[in-house]
Amino acid sequence: MKKIIILIAFAALLMTTGCLKRNVVAVNDHPGRPLTMVESLDNYWAFTPGYVIGQHYRFWTCTDQGDALDCKVECDGETDLDCIGFGWGK
Length: 90
Description:
Blueprint: H1 2-15, E1 18-29, E2 35-46, E3 52-64, E4 69-73, E5 84-87
Antiparallel strand pairs: 1-2, 2-3, 3-4, 3-5
């Protein structure tokens, strides 16, 4: 009985485990403001990197904080930009 519980717990852990890989597609600086536009392609995996369960193209605006960028997604319904994608990871 103890082995079955351990096996079920391991299977549940494996099914809820995933990874995100974000590839930056484009980066454009605003000519007059400390603002950067970033486009990314996000891939979501479960179990192994060969099993993609979601992919999203996202638009970000980032403000320059001196030594870091503070970014937020711009395709959340408040702008005319649309996050194109499928599957898990919206």
